[in-house]
Amino acid sequence: MRHFLAPIILISLLIFSEYFAFRGFRLLFGERGSRLFTWAWWLFFAFEILLFIISRSWENNARNLVVNFIMILFVVKLIAALTVFVGDIVVWIRALAESQANAAMKESTSLSRRSFVGRLALGISAVPLLSMTYGIIRTAFDFKLHRETLRFPNFPAAFNGLKIVQISDIHTGSLVNTHQLEKAVDLILNEKPDLIVFTGDIVNNRTDEAWAYAHVLRRLKAPLGVYSVLGNHDYGDYETWDDAASKNKNLEDMHRLHRELGWNLMLNQAQTFERNGEKWSLLGIENWGANLNFPKYGKLPLALAQAGDAPFKILLSHDPSHWNAEVNDGKTDIDLALAGHTHGFQFGVEIPGLKWSPSQYIYPQWAGLYSKGKQYLYVNRGLGCLGYMGRIGIRPEITVLEFFKS
User: Alpha-carbon distance 52 to 35, whole Å?
Assistant: First the structure.
């Protein structure tokens, strides 16, 4: 049942937004104009649906433009529809309260109020239109460095001051040029990290989306190396393949991509670092999601076995829901998990005293640092975008972590 719930909700919202937005905007036209507007509205709606279906077979950039165009229209209509819906309720309540009034006067008053609601819907709908446009033009690549200093009693003193930079969710299939990615790489290298980690989703659907950006990503280097894991989008699960062999080839190419970038792809593995007789382990597993029927490819016990008796452990696991399901509350001795996946919904509010996003209703841990007992989780807000090619209130993130023995 849960598998069909999301499509049902989406279709219901689509019908709701189209119907009530149409009703609201139609009130702005006279009787003759209303007929023409009705034909134009529903013909354009049919065009949107047809365009969306046809664009699924187009190349990435064209398809992304269509998706963003339709998504912006959907949000604008939804806000307008909610305004009209609430306005209708107010009108109906007032009509009941004024049931003793003259019928002709009631009809005139009702029409006047509905016309006002239509104008109000048009005005309010301009807010998401302008916000989403700004989110594409300005915020989508306004990278923010989030810094955390972490202290653990069991952290090896020989590694005091260890600096790890985490990036996640690049989604190269949504990029249109290399300029912004080069800007992000420059910011990362300026930090002079000891270690760089990538926590999944380098593409949207197919490995070949990333090759055009390989020369930029290959610049990422650090003394202790670059380590990576796969995200749910890296397996080709969201693409239609001719046969199983094509999908398997795509995954093989994904593994080859990480090798050619010089990244150490961790497939349920661990790497132990040692200095002056002290050591710690970095673990990395394949994607494992507890929410929304995401596949569970990861095998944490395999990585833990390789980590052995290392006194301090950091886990790379793309989906933050994995932390509650298999890591914390004494299930493991992993000190810190690093995840991505949520993008902070690419929409929310982060100001002093207020941190909110719709993402929190699906993922209790959706952005930033969390703790439970002595174990910690950091969720990166993502470097790129998916679907909507912008961000509103949630800037793309580069995480800088520094470690010390407490």
Answer: 26
Residue span of the structural domain in which 216 resides? 144-405
User: Are 117 and 85 within 8 A, CB to CB?
Assistant: no
Residue 151 sits in the same domain as residue 133? no
* Higher per-residue pLDDT: 198 or 137: 198
Phi first, then psi: give them for residue 106, nearest 5 degrees.
Answer: -60, -40
What DSSP state is assigned to residue 178?
A: S
Q: Final residue of a domain: which of 137, 153, 182?
A: 137
**Which residue in 112, 110, 115 sits closest to 94, CA to CA?**
110
Alpha-carbon radius of gyration of the chain: 25
Phi-psi region of 274 (alpha: psi -120 to 50; beta: other; left: phi over 0): beta
The tokens for 332 are: 């493991």
The 3-class SS string of 44-89 reads: HHHHHHHHHHHHCCCCHHHHHHHHHHHHHHHHHHHHHHHHHHHHHH
* Beta pairing class for 375-379 and 336-339: parallel
Give the largest Cα separation in the chain, rounded: 92
**382 three-state secondary structure:** coil
Question: What is the tally of structural domains in the chain?
Answer: 2
Separation CA 319–CA 327 (nearest Å): 12
210 with 133, same domain: the answer is no
Task: Give the Cα separation of 328 and 215 in Å (integer).
Answer: 38
DSSP letters of 278-331? EEEEEEE---B-SSTT--B---HHHHHHHHTT-SSEEEE-S-THHIIIIITTTT
Span 290-332, pLDDT tens digits: 987 788 999 999 999 999 999 999 999 999 999 999 999 999 9
> Tell me: the pLDDT tens digits for 301-312?
999 999 999 999
Q: Contact 346/340 with Cβ under 8 angstroms?
A: no
Distance of alpha carbon 143 from alpha carbon 280, whole angstroms: 30
Q: Same domain for 110 and 46?
A: yes
45 and 188 assigned to the same domain: no
Enter the tokens of residue 35.
Answer: 């007929």
DSSP, res 179 = H
Q: What CA–CA distance (Å, rounded) separates 185 from 110?
A: 59
Find tokens 């989604």 and name the residue.
Answer: 171
Tell me how far apart the alpha carbons of residues 250 and 255 are, in angstroms, rounded to a whole number.
9
Pair (316, 240) in one structural domain:
yes
